[in-house]
Amino acid sequence: MSASAEMPYFINPSKNLGQDEKIEAYEQAIQAIDANLMGETDQILKMATINCLLKTYLPYYYWVGFYLVKNDRLMVGPYQGTLGCLHIDFSKGVCGKAARTKETQIVAEVHALAQGTDHIACDPNSQSEIVVPVLNATGELLAVFDVDSTVIGSFDEVDQRYLESLLQKHFAKGALT
User: How far, rounded to the nearest angstrom, does the alpha carbon of residue 80 sit from its chain's CA centroid?
Assistant: First the structure.
């Protein structure tokens, strides 16, 4: 199956937010996530809930999901959006780079990257991306958290700060009590 440039009927195009709106949306989303995940320990349930609530509160999230580490590569895990890449080698794409370096990757315009090596075009509608490594309490890579937008330049240091903090709270520090 190949990707289509036609926007699926069930997906809305992204809508960027101003800085103040973005901060407010993250604050509301994180409050909802923390309330729903209080005491939760199941990682898949946490991932599905985080995807759902972030996509609900942040209108520039087109595709949101986790790629889990399995057999020394990434395998698509819980996500919301169009069909994601099923497997990603650590040597390929923005997700692979985040997995290799264990550092957040922000790409303002994904189609400006070398296709097939620096970027893997799972969906031609994606224009910008942020990928955050998900580490456990010992610093072991569990997954990467990937968000795509249909608008160039959607992600910045505000996204990075909120997402890194959220993922550390729910995966590295354990469940909220």
Answer: 10
